[in-house]
């Protein structure tokens, strides 16, 4: 069924009895051409592009829990491409372009809102750093605008410009950045993949890999052995646990990152804003809640929950930037498991096991990368060659010294 104004009207007249399930609940086949381990945003987008762009439809997505139960439903919904280094900038700009046409592409309302992203600066040195980043972005054809205090006051009058410790001097604006509805992104990709024949198998845990003479032949699961010619792993914060089963140790660590949402409020914050002297970012959802987050909790963990000390830390940063949010009540919080790479940049590459492919190391950038991650991972699996914008996202870059150190924020807690 294709969603449209006509289909809404037709089903309204029939008492909404004609709607079909968004995706099937199939039992796993004995063998597939490709198995994707991980039913989050990156796994589902990979399956979608494998089917749509490369014609591979004998594909299964295997998810330990329910679809979208990981980081795709546990983030602050921000999309942007305001990176500086070529290894990241071209990749995230591809993602931004895919975001801009995503809803029309997979015929699903993901609530993509290009409301703009602003990074605040508080000193001359920080202004110069953002000017360099903005110039690097524009050299790659990406929009960037450096705002002075007067322009920023007009756009965001509610900020604490004269804060005693952190006065705001201006900000770097990417107008094409914004937000998207995170769970709807997962549902849209799942529906699009399912329509093209992909099997989405939920509540199916991978317990091991079938590896013969150094070549992957499938996976062992809680629903039995499923064979495949190729296997791609996109398990985010659980990547290390999954890849341990294949005998591989990776240059990533898992850390908890919390996010929060307040009660619904009238529209007050019209962009995404990030603090310049602390790790804090905030936007307002279409339902009115303020959605915000900050630093990692600072210890290794596979738990989808954080600690109260970080709640206080994040709220303090928010109060320093936007004092008025102190009157809002926080309704809920959640934790995502971040797969932190040592240079703060992702990995999309083959592994030493023939036929086994890896997608991990997303740090803080996993959600915004969802479309490009799926496209590039699908390209790698289908053609056994990296996508042109992902050639630097290699697994061996830590061994060769070709790191992509965008901000110096890798897995080390002292850098956050």
Offer a quick outline of the entry.
This protein is an alpha/beta fold and 416 residues long.
Q: What can you see in these coordinates?
A:
The chain has helices spanning 5-13, 41-54, 86-106, 124-139, 149-155, 182-195, 239-244, 308-321, 370-383, 397-400; strands at residues 31-37, 59-62, 78-79, 117-121, 145-148, 170-174, 178-179, 199-201, 206-212, 215-221, 224-233, 252-264, 272-274, 281-284, 289-300, 330-341, 347-350, 356-360. By secondary structure, it is of the alpha/beta class. Helix 2 links the parallel strand 1 and strand 2. Helix 2 packs parallel to helix 6 (182-195) and helix 3 crosses helix 9. The radius of gyration is 21 Å and the shape is globular.
Mind sketching the topology for me?
Blueprint: H1 5-13, E1 31-37, H2 41-54, E2 59-62, E3 78-79, H3 86-106, E4 117-121, H4 124-139, E5 145-148, H5 149-155, E6 170-174, E7 178-179, H6 182-195, E8 199-201, E9 206-212, E10 215-221, E11 224-233, H7 239-244, E12 252-264, E13 272-274, E14 281-284, E15 289-300, H8 308-321, E16 330-341, E17 347-350, E18 356-360, H9 370-383, H10 397-400
Parallel strand pairs: 1-2, 1-11, 2-8, 4-13, 11-18
Antiparallel strand pairs: 3-7, 4-6, 5-6, 9-10, 10-11, 12-15, 12-16, 13-14, 14-15, 17-18
């Amino acid at each position: 069924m294709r969603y449209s104004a006509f289909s809404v009207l037709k089903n309204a007249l029939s008492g909404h009895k004609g709607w079909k399930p968004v995706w099937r609940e199939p039992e796993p086949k004995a063998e597939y051409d490709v198995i994707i381990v991980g039913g989050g945003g990156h796994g589902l987008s990979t399956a979608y592009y494998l089917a749509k762009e490369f014609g591979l439809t004998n594909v299964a997505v295997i998810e330990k829990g329910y679809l979208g139960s990981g980081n795709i439903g546990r983030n602050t919904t921000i999309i942007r491409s305001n990176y500086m280094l070529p290894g990241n900038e071209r990749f995230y700009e591809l993602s931004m372009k895919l975001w801009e046409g995503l809803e029309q592409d997979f015929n699903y309302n993901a609530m993509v809102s290009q409301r703009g992203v602003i990074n605040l600066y508080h000193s001359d040195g920080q202004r110069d750093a953002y000017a360099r980043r903005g110039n690097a972005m524009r050299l790659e054809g990406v929009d960037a605008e450096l705002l002075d205090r007067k322009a920023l006051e007009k756009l965001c009058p509610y900020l604490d410009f004269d804060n005693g410790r952190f006065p705001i001097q201006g900000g770097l604006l990417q107008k094409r950045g914004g937000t998207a509805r995170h769970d709807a992104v997962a549902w849209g990709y799942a529906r699009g993949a399912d329509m093209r024949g992909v099997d989405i198998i939920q509540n199916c845990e991978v317990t091991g890999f079938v590896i013969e003479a150094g070549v992957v032949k499938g996976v062992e699961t809680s629903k039995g052995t499923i064979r495949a010619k190729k296997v791609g792993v996109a398990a985010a914060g659980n990547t290390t646990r999954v890849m341990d089963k294949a005998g591989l140790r990776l240059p990533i660590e898992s850390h908890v990152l919390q996010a929060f949402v307040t009660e619904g409020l009238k529209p007050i914050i019209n962009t995404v804003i990030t603090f310049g002297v602390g790790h804090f970012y905030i936007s307002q959802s279409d339902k009115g809640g303020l959605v915000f987050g900050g630093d990692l909790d600072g210890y290794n963990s596979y738990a989808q929950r954080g600690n109260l000390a970080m709640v206080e830390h994040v709220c303090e940063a928010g109060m320093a930037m936007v004092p008025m949010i102190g009157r809002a009540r926080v309704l809920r919080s959640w934790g995502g498991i971040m797969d932190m790479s040592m240079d703060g940049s992702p990995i999309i590459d083959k592994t030493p096991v023939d036929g086994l492919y890896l997608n991990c190391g997303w740090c803080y950038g996993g959600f915004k990368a969802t479309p490009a991650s799926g496209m590039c991972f699908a390209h790698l699996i289908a053609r056994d060659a990296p996508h042109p914008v992902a050639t630097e996202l290699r697994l061996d870059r830590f061994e060769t010294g070709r790191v992509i150190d965008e901000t110096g924020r890798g897995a080390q807690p002292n850098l956050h």
